[in-house]
Structures are given as structure tokens and as C-alpha cells.
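WARN no homologs supplied; continuing
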Amino acid sequence: MTHSLDLLPRVRTTLDRYHLLPRDATILVAVSGGADSLSLLHLLGRLAPEFGWRLTVAVFDHGQRPESAAEAAATAAWAEQQGWPVRLGRADAPCHDEAGARDQRHAFLRRCADEVGAEHITLGHSADDRAETLLLNLLRGAGTRGLGAMPARSGRLARPLLDCARAELAAYAAAHALPVVNDPTNQDGNLRARVRAQVLPLLETLRPGARQAVARAAGVCDLDRQALDNYGQLLLDGRRIVPEPASFIAGLGAAVLDVSGWSAMAQPERHLLLRAWLGSWRGTLAEVDAVLVESLDTLAGGRADARPLTWPRVLGAATATRCGSRLAVAHWPAPTPWGPVELGAALPAGVPRLGCGPGELCACLRAGRYTVRSRRPGDHYQPAGRPRKPLGDWLAEQGVPAPARDRVPLVVLGDQIVWLPGQQPAEGFADPDGPLLGVVF
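OK structure emitted
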């Protein structure tokens, strides 16, 4: 039996190749009780004195089986007996789909890492897990990001066992008498379990070493993904627009992209840019549907008045919208007409107030009994010295997307709009000696 002797040098090589865990780091080790994660903890524990690591163990019970709570408690107790501090958590409600269970587990791990000040969270994924994930993502029609399955490093997540096979980890756990818990849900009829039990063994019969080859392919795709991400960031840096503090989309957390001359860009670069843009807005970016990227591409290069794009699986309650030469995505306020109210009265929540004081959006108006309201269908406006146009055209010129236009307070006299903030007052209403009126964001 040489497995127990072979894995430590291999893990050292993986840690060094990907620069996964620096010296003197605080590390959270996710442990499920399976052979993979227990082997991970045992291996990192052997390396910890040499590298000065401070390890904390995190055990999470998904609550999917009656006996899972006792098993999680036993795993946590064993880890404590070995001298490691332990965090034990349990799902509020069982989640029986893989994605939902993963989200619950990762949320728990992030909380634990924050509480103990861990810069890194290590997961016990093996080469087999990586191969399975690549095949599953391939079945979903994934691109380079999805095919670079289970990267060695992803934000705070690190996977030191990606060069180790599942069978090798099982042998290592047995050789070191680790208290392995066998979870039967790993052998149920879900798609991952069937890929594990049927597809990969079939590939091995067709071509011995298929598992390792597919896992290596995932590593190659991940390197390509990193290079593409870097290039996408360069494209994004040239087109990202940071909303001005004195703007009607400020405070909404919108991501704004300059899409002028969109059709002049090559389609692969446009799609890469859109993925980088979505990733910058979300903070992280898993594999995004190709259809969503194509829809955003159409929106960016199409009509300025196209309907906002919804895509709940990726955007949640947010929508993407085109406004002039800009594309914006945000959780927009619900469009709710309001007013008229007297000038100086309280305005609805989310609407910037009008007050006295200098600012970019300000004007001096002659005395009058003005009121303030939101836009209405059929509104037109004519600033002094400029043509009369639909109000929406002026708002688009100012870069205010349609979902944010009810946030714009219009100063009116009767039925006439006398001032649209950001434009000159209407003819005859400006008075340089009048009080200064400005938008207060």
C-alpha cells in the first residue's frame, strides 16, 4: 500500500503549481465526513506545522436524511479530538436539488470564514469530481468557463486535491483509519450520480485513463478561461461607465456599459465583454447561458427603446435596458407615477428632492406657484433655445434609462413642464436673480 505515501507530495505539487495556500494563513477546511474531505483535512493537518497554517474545520449537515445530524456531530467531535476548532451548521430546511444544497453549504462556509478570519476555504474535490462536472457542464452547452470545471482557485475557494483520484483518496482514508461516513445520496439517481456510476466507467472501458484525461482537459480550459477573463477585463475597462453621483441612476447599484459603435466590434469580443460586464455587476460569474449573452448583444446593438431584458436565473429581479448609447443593468424601482405636489413638499421615497444649493443639476427660476410631479404619457419639453421634443427623448439624451425615469422630479406650472433637471428651463422661466433650485441626491 503506497497511496498514503504518494498523496502528500502530489498535494504539495498542486499547492505550489496553483499558489493555493500561502504560509501563515488562516484556512477553513470544509469537511463532509466523506473520504475526500477527511483526507483533505488529514493532509493539510500534516502540512500545517511546516507552513504555519491555522486550520478551522467546518461541518455542514444538509438535513436530507434522518441520521445525517448524528453523522455530522460525530465528524465534528472527531475533528475536535484531533485538536482542531470546529464550526458545525445545519440547513434551515432540507434542499434536495444539487444546486440549492451547494448554495446553502457555501453560504455557511462564507459565514464561518468571516467569523474566524479565514482568507481561504478549502474543498475536497478530486480529479473525479472535476471530470464529472466537465461532462455535466458539457451536457448543458457550457462554454470555456463551464468546461474549466472546478478551478483550483476561485475567489476564496481552493481545491488542493484536484490531482488526486477518488479511489486514491479512499485508500488514503482507509490507510489512516479516518472515520469515513458513506452518504447514500451520492449514489441516488440524480444526473451527477449517473455520470459517476455509468458514464465515466463506460469511458474508462473505451479508453483507459479517461477520468484523468477529462480532468486534465478541465484544467486546460480553466487556463484558457483565465486568459479570456483577463482580456475581457481589458475590454470592460475601456467601456465601463461609472454613473455620476449627480445622476438619476446613482444609488441603484447599476452597472453601465458604453455600447456606441457596438456592431463594429467582433462578435466574440462583444460576448466576452458582456460576460465580464455581468461578472463585475454580480461580483462573481458562474457559467452564463449563451442565450442570455446573445440577447444582451441584440439589446446592446438594437433599438434604443427596446423593452428591458429579464432573465431571472442569472439577473434575479434585475433587468437590463438600453438607453441611447448605454446599456444598464440594475434592480430598478417599480415605475409608480406620483404628484403633483407643491414645490418644497416631501417627495416619494427614492425620488431625489429639490432644494436650494449649488449642484450640477440646478437652475434659477422666476417666482411662480410651481408644482412637482413625475412624467406622464404624452409629455413634451422645450428648453430655452432648443426644439420641442418628447420628454423621453430628453431623458434618453441625459442617459436616464426607462426604468429610472419616474425618479426624475419635473417642475411644472399648470400643465407645462418648466424645468427638466439637467436641461435649461423653458423659455421665459429662467431668472438669474431668482432662487437657486437644485436636485439633492
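The two ends are 70 Å apart (CA to CA).
OK
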